């Protein structure tokens, strides 16, 4: 008798589950749709975040290149100014020697 009772309980449980699913299928589909949509939105935000990070890195490297280039040009300009000063001193020295 207990086997029959167990089978009946199992059938009733299966029947309850199928009744629940058949009565509430639209709610279940809606929940699944929301879950997939949330996953898609989350993955898009993660992708955008990675792209923003890559842009930040590229921008930082370009800014550093510009700063380095300006520093290098500034150093070159200082060298040229020093050469001009040296040449002017040499010319003044040569002019002084020629006048004697």
Provide a brief overview of the structure.
With about 100 residues, the protein is mainly α. It has helices at about 1-25, 25-100.
Set down the secondary structure blueprint:
Layout: H1 2-23, H2 25-99
Characterization of this structure:
The chain contains two helices and no strands. By secondary structure, it is mostly helical. The protein has one domain. The relative contact order is 0.04.
Total strand segments? 0
Give the biggest sheet.
none
What's the alpha carbon Rg, rounded to whole Å? Answer: 41 Å
Specify the helix fraction band. Answer: over 70%
Roughly how many Å apart are the termini? 138 Å
Strand content: under 5%
The number of domains? 1
Q: Could you say which overall geometry the principal axes of the C-alpha atoms support?
A: rod-shaped
The helix/strand class is mainly alpha
Average pLDDT reading: 87
Low-confidence stretches: none
Number of helices: 2
Q: What series of H and E elements makes up the topology?
A: HH
């Amino acid at each position: 008798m207990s086997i029959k009772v167990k089978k009946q309980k199992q059938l009733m449980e299966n029947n309850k589950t199928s009744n629940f699913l058949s009565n509430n299928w639209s709610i279940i589909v809606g929940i699944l749709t929301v879950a997939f949509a949330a996953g898609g939105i989350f993955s898009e935000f993660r992708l955008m975040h990675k792209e923003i990070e890559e842009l930040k890195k590229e921008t930082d490297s370009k800014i550093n290149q510009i700063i380095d280039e300006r520093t290098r040009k500034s150093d070159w300009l200082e060298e040229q100014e020093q050469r001009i000063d040296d040449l002017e001193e040499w010319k003044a020295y040569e002019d002084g020697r020629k006048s004697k």
